[in-house]
User: What shape does this take?
Amino acid sequence: MRFLIILLLLAGCAQNPVTGSADFVMMSENQEIAIGRQNDEQIKKQYQVYGSKPLQDYVNSVGQRIARQSHRPNLQYHFTVLDTPDINAFALPGGYVYITRGILAYLNSEAELAAVLGHEIGHVTARHGVRQQSAAQAANIGVTIASLFVPQINTIGGNNLTNLVGGALLSGYGREHELEADKLGAEYLSRTAYDPQAIITVIGVLKNQELQDAELAKQEGREPRRYHGVFASHPDNDTRLKQAVAESDKLASTEHYTGRREFLSAIEGLVFNDNKEQGIVRYNTFYHGELGMSVHFPPDWQVHNLPTSLFAISPQGEAQLQLKLDVSPQGTPLDYAHKLAGSQAKIKALDINGLPAALFERPDAIGGVIYLNKQAFILQAKAKPGSDLSSHRDEINGTIRSFHALSNEERPLLKPLSLHIITARTGDTFANLSKNSPLGQSADSYLRLINASFPAGEPQAGQLIKLVR
Assistant: This one.
């Protein structure tokens, strides 16, 4: 058995392109590329590719410039901007790198874009994905072989033991890989005349975004949305990270290329938050062209349009109102409400803006069912444990009764929000610039965040800044 395991381990050794030392991997470079290609197809089924060719070309040009200076310059790299407001960037084995339009909105220079792409290229060059998969495969092989010789390994106690061993084998593939990817990214930035310190700058920007989202997450009872990489796992004053960046800084040229104006020009018109395919929120009214509907939420509630759900949170976070869709409802709205709310609920049928509907109320839920185009739209509110939902009854019922088929006059509102670059004038403040903003109550904070001025910075006369319109 020991001899067999040694043979398997030896068969999986390959030279690491970055360190030159032997790594345990269980696939060739051609297999790595094939895996990346296959998963690239799945990624593009799950996320749409952002429709701006000039922006795609710009991001690709920056990425290719860095990749040529990497430890694996002969790989064919692919850089893709995904059409999602998620704040993320990630890489697949074999040279497939993705960045979302969501994270682009928070960057402020080409050097910062290069920092994010360089970090992801570092994951590819160090074969982190391949090494993770190989380690997982090795753990499974070890368990399979061991179970042939030691049947007790399949018992509960045995499984706990193998899970512990497998966990120990894989436990190093988090923080260490992220640090290595960032160190490599800094090195690649220095080779291409970008400032390696841009990595630290990006961390600060994304940490600020994370802080704001954490406040919203408390109200919504969900986990905060965080960038997956080193920007999430390390503070911007992390000693080892600063040390890694400083080492690359010694290799950098005396003049760094920032490319702020070039980057801001490239993202002019970038869609911000929702795209029209996902529905649009304007001043707490939600419009959806494909579904042909609109609904207005209370003006002081926070509305959140996520890829999988639409919901609004009351000012103190004690109540949540969610919109759901059933494409194949059975029976009438009254029948549907009875099934949904139960026989103990107060239920009544009615007409809402010319649409068949039903309202229901229980001590722990208030809602309505509206039929439009043979589909059921369900608006249901619930309260946090210990909170009184009845205090919001009028607001909730007002939202339900606001539901209506989208009018021709409303269709022009389906245009998504987008970024526009202006030059700040003397006396401009983010508070003044955010007046009447379609971003609503959080507009001031959003402008500071996307312009790297959070929490209390103000624009300087002559400075290029982003607005959302």
Summary: The chain has three domains: 2-265, 276-413, 417-468.
